[in-house]
Write a structure and sequence with these properties.
By secondary structure, the protein is mainly beta. The protein is built from one helix and 19 strands. The strands form three sheets. Strands 4, 5, 8, 9, 10, 11, 15, 16, 18 and 19 form a ten-stranded mixed sheet that branches. The longest helix is centred in the first third of the chain and has 14 residues. The chain starts with 6 loop residues before the first helix and ends with a strand.
Length: 238
């Protein structure tokens, strides 16, 4: 086992790790999964959900399906619990957005406060988190909804099976987002190309979660960058 760092080096080493670590450190990934007729929002890793603050959930939209149609506001009829939000169906597509949060990195760790409130901030960012679930067989599954950041399938996922390769496109405000970092089940895959696309192989059946993150400059005294995180979840048939 490696020896522990001396106390005088521990704080600088932790700061360096945070600077080089995930873009939206301090936030838990959001993901959605179908359970019966409902779609359920959770945060953190599947199997180890983290608490969800209901006050942070600012928008829940449902595209009823199966045909095309406008999204409806589903927040009022969602059931909130400490570690999940249950959205009743039927829905062909569900999207969830959390209230943006400002984070600052200091020599002593991260705090959920903007730069102008943290005198010793080393780096600050605005974190925006979104999640989307789709029914792969619905006509609306491939629709772009002009979210701040979203993933849409290029491949027909209703025909996809374990081991198949599929293509996803990452959009920021409806426009292709090149250079976005894409992960499958928390395993980094790479960056999107000039079209905002990346090809990946489906590793398992059941609920699959593909996520993307994008950092961009922010001209604000509250933070110097904006970090957007979005997930896309869907079922892979056996």
């Amino acid at each position: 086992m490696p020896a522990a760092l001396p106390a005088r080096l521990a704080r600088p080493a932790a700061l360096l790790a945070a600077l080089l670590g995930p873009a939206a450190a301090g936030a838990h990934e959001l993901w959605l999964a179908r359970e019966g007729a409902a779609v359920v929002l959770r945060a953190g890793h599947p199997g180890a959900p983290q608490p969800i603050d209901a006050a942070r959930v600012t928008a829940i939209r449902c595209l009823p399906g199966p045909g095309p149609g406008p999204a409806v506001d589903a927040r009022a009829r969602a059931a909130f619990a400490p570690a999940e939000v249950r959205i009743p169906g039927p829905c062909a597509v569900v999207t969830v957005a959390l209230r943006p949060a400002f984070w600052s990195l200091t020599p002593d760790g991260q705090v959920e406060r903007p730069r102008d409130e943290v005198p010793d901030a080393v780096r600050s960012w605005e974190a925006i988190q979104l999640a989307k679930w789709i029914d792969p067989g619905a006509p609306a599954a491939g629709a772009a909804l002009a979210e701040p950041l979203e993933l849409v399938p290029v491949t027909d996922l209703s025909r996809a099976r374990k081991g198949d390769k599929v293509t996803v496109r990452v959009l920021a405000g409806g426009a292709p987002a090149p250079g976005a970092a894409v992960a499958l089940g928390h395993h980094g895959l790479g960056l999107t190309d000039s079209k905002g696309e990346l090809r990946l192989r489906l590793r398992a059946t059941g609920t699959t979660v593909v996520s993307a993150s994008l950092r961009r400059p922010l001209a604000s005294p509250r933070a110097e960058s904006q970090v957007l995180e979005a997930s896309l979840s869907f079922e892979v048939a056996p």
